[in-house]
Amino acid sequence: MQDEDALREAAKDCVHCGFCLPACPTYQLWAEEMDSPRGRIYLVNQILDGASLTATAAEHFDRCLGCMACMTACPSGVQYDQLIEAARVWTEEGRSSADTGSAALAEDGKRTVRDRAARAAIFSLFPYPRRLRALTAPLRTVQRTGLDRRLARSGLPGRVSPVLGAALRLAPPGVSAAAARPLPERVPALGTRRAVVGMLTGCVQSVFFPQVNAATARVLAAEGCDVIIPRGQGCCGALSLHSGREAEAADFARRTIARFEQAGVDAVVVNSAGCGSAMKEYERLLAGADAGWAERAAEMSGKVRDLAEFLAEIGPVARRHPLPVTAAYHDACHLAHAQRITRQPRELLRAIPGLTLAEVPDAGTCCGSAGVYNLLQPQAATELGARKAESVLATGAPLLISANPGCSLQIASALAARGEHIAVAHTAEVLDASIRGRPL
Ligand code: SF4
Ligand code: SF4
Fold first, then answer.
1. What is the pLDDT of residues 371-392, one digit of tens each?
2. What pTM did the predictor assign?
3. Is 189 in the pocket of ligand 2 (CB under 6 A)?
4. What is the number of the ligand 1 atom nearest to the C-alpha of 18?
């Protein structure tokens, strides 16, 4: 976390113009000043000036998606990401409070037992691919027998825990541990080698979307890259970092940095928007760390590239075969707002013969996934998911392309809730299908 002087400087850049308000999904939902970026900056300022973190203030911070749409909208360049990151740490650690009114925080400003238990369950599961994988067999059984649908209709899981209800609703169908077999440690470049790149396999991506990782490795190899996929890589720390669990995030970051340093690669390519964004933040996360970690983190952050960003940088060499389909492209917030990558994926997709790209009407608005937001704030996430599903359906496209596993799960679940279904694919899968001349 930045020191308080740096946070004060960042907060001072806000001139209270309000240009960010219409872009903010939580302001769109509730039209409450304190659920807008400007309101949250005001709360950060109050705390920096010595006020206690009240339960109500903490709830406004918790309700922030961390989508960074406000940063794209802000003409003054306010570094809201640094401010909300600090606010999340304060909230996670808990502070004394005289205020009440939050479901998640008790009167003393600490999280309630129920909220702590929910968070403990989430953070002892999702960042660990092996634990997630162990869940795939029971999940498949529940889905095969239709028990998941019966449970959802009964509303029982949601009554036991809103997190459980949301998790069951979001779980992708047909996941199998067998499909998630590890990729080889090295996938050689096809043709002339142009680069040696490392590839992050991720947690949710590797367990629920192994086909995306396989497609990513094939696309990179087809574009002339030796792809190094270090064994034993775990979570990059994105979920922890974006939830105020700074020490945990720093541990994950150190492990990830060490793995990729050993690989000796020119770049580290990441196909999950949230992970890429977090790895680019390693430099800031470990800025004050000793034993050389600050320098190592800065070097690693400099090597991290989103897949589309990297492919646009090196330029295409692999032949594209026609893929006659109309596809809607969904901008993941951690790609569009946090990494400012919107042009590259569109250019890559438009270069596929036969593919027509449709723009989603509210492309800059979060779908409600936002890391673990849809587990912890299921009501708001469901509302945002429903709005996004409507926008996607308005394009009329039979295919949705998304570069973030959380967004794919969230939008598919929102479509299913309306009784609709369209195919959802990652940019890597679409490029792979075109390069290999196979249908999606
Ligand atoms: S964050 Fe930026 S856009 Fe929002 S009120 Fe402050 S200066 Fe204006
Ligand atoms: S990060 Fe997203 S939800 Fe949070 S204040 Fe900014 S625009 Fe609103």
1. 999 999 999 999 999 999 999 9
2. 0.91
3. no
4. 5
Give Cα separations from 5 to 11, 12, 49, 296, 429 (angstroms). Answer: 10, 10, 11, 25, 45
pLDDT for position 227: 98
Distance from the alpha carbon of residue 24 to the mean position of ligand 1, in angstroms:
11
Q: Which ligand is nearest to the CA of 40?
A: 2
| Cα separation, 282 vs 27, whole angstroms | 30
Which numbered atom of ligand 2 lies nearest the CA of 68?
1
Q: How far apart are the C-alpha atoms of 127 and 136, rounded to whole Å? A: 15
Could you tell me if the CB of 168 is within 6 A of ligand 2? Answer: no
Pocket of ligand 1 contains residue 37 by CB under 6 Å:
yes
Measure the CA–CA gap between 96 and 86, rounded to whole angstroms: 16
Q: Taking Cα atoms as reference points, which of 44, 27, 35 lies closest to residue 84?
A: 44
What DSSP designation does 370 have? T
Nearest CA among 188, 183, 266, 198 for reference residue 223 = 188
3-state secondary structure (DSSP) of residue 239: helix
Of the candidates 139, 214, 201, the one whose C-alpha atom is nearest the C-alpha of residue 176 is 139
Alpha helices, DSSP H, located in 21-175:
25-30, 37-48, 55-63, 69-73, 80-93, 113-123, 129-134, 136-144, 147-154, 156-160, 162-170
